[in-house]
Design a protein that fits this description.
The chain has about 160 residues and is α+β, with helices and mostly antiparallel strands. The protein has a single domain, classed as Nucleoside Triphosphate Pyrophosphohydrolase. A hairpin with a 2-residue loop joins strand 1 and strand 2.
Length: about 160
């Protein structure tokens, strides 16, 4: 019997600071309302930077311009339903730009909000994962890696150019 190859789920997240506050989303999950950075899964044929731009737009209706990679994080989550998953998360920081045309937020996203580090720390129990606070702490500590640290080797036309 051939054993299935294990692979982690690849996700991206955006850390956006503006005037001492951080962009977050409040989202409905199977475990209730949770706070997270704009984040989501890498899709087939997508680069990591294209994924974080897309996810931020879908979840906040703001354009995200990645400027640096904060870090790559691996976490294992055991869910109450018995499911378990390992996530490999690429967290980027950058700036946001408002769009001229209003757009609806992604399904499950209740709202985008801006919190200070103290406010974010105070609501730790409602974070989607421990990586929410860790990403902000690493950002505040000055962790930055150039975007070209992550290289995408494009084999065909399916990869977006971002």
């Amino acid at each position: 019997m051939k054993q299935e190859r294990w692979t982690p789920r690849v996700t991206v997240a955006a850390v956006v600071e503006h005037e001492g506050r951080f962009l977050l989303v409040e989202e409905q999950t199977s475990e209730g309302l949770r706070i997270n950075q704009p984040a989501g899964h890498l899709e087939s044929g997508e680069t990591l930077t294209a994924a974080v731009v897309r996810e931020t737009l879908e979840e906040t209706a703001l354009a995200f311009v990645p400027e640096a990679l904060i870090g790559v994080y691996m976490t294992h989550i055991d869910r109450p339903d018995g499911e378990a998953a390992t996530f490999l998360r690429f967290t980027f920081c950058g700036r946001h730009e408002r769009l001229d045309t209003p757009r609806a937020l992604d399904t499950g996203i209740i709202r985008a909000l801006w919190l200070t580090p103290d406010e974010l720390h105070a609501c730790r129990a409602s974070h989607r994962t421990p990586l929410v606070m860790r990403s902000v702490e690493d950002y505040l500590a000055g962790r930055r890696f150039p975007l070209d640290l992550v290289h995408t080797h494009s084999v065909g036309p399916s990869f977006s150019k971002s």
